[in-house]
Amino acid sequence: MRYWIIGAIVLIGLAVISARFPGLALYMWRQNVVFRNGQTQEWVMIDFADEKAVRAWYPVNDGVMGGVSESAFTATGSGSAVFGGIVRFDNNGGFATVQTDFNPARSMQAYDGLKLQVRGDGKKYGVYLRNETRRVLYQATFTTEKDTWQEIRLPWSAFVPTSFGRQVTAPPVDPSAIRAMSLLIEFKQQGPFKLEVKHIGAFEE
Asked: Please, which residues bridge with residue 197 across strands?
């Protein structure tokens, strides 16, 4: 019954969004549900096979603090996107991110965490989630295996509150009100980087 109710809510939400934001509805609100044994287990929230979904992401690098690192998020043309660029330590820099915003906020409270399908370069990456306040970002990290596709699962408990790159005391992330999401690289990793992403979604255990 719970899954039926969730499905009904999603359909109603899609109808409202399609009416108010017809272009946005084509990609950011796309729902792909995977069923296992008759129960909803996984949800693909953003599918980068759609290049419109790729274009909804934009770079936010250390230039905001005087740094000169670079990043971009580009479609591969083969059903994925690449978060790539170069991290430089000049001018006290050292990080690069790409971000997408959700308006209205996304709700993932029916799930247990975030799931990503990625192929990396052996470096460490992270995901930021933001609720209402812009001063607190919730960060979870993962390490890639070079040139290997991986399914990354990040439970909500893995997201720690941070502010300006430092862990802070704050309430846990609220998965019912996700306002923004970012992919990032920092962690004192200078040089070129490349993270290929097929999709981002949620999982239920």
From this structure: 81, 118
Token representation of residue 80 = 């994925």
State the residue range of the domain holding 160. 45-203
Whether 11 is covered by a domain: the verdict is no
Q: Which helix (H) or strand (E) holds 24?
A: helix 22-25
Tens digit of pLDDT for each residue in 139-198?
999 999 999 999 999 999 999 999 988 999 999 999 999 999 999 999 999 999 999 999
- d(CA 68, CA 52) in angstroms, rounded, equals 27
DSSP state of 65: G
Task: Judge whether 112 and 204 are in contact, CB under 8 Å.
Answer: yes
Q: What is the pLDDT of residues 124-144, one digit of tens each?
A: 999 999 999 999 999 999 999
Domain presence at residue 7: no
Query: Which bin fits 191, alpha (ψ -120 to 50), beta or left (φ > 0)?
Result: left
CATH code, 129? 2.60.120.430
Eight-state DSSP code of residue 80: -
How far lies 78's CA from each of 18, 59, 99, in Å? 27, 22, 21
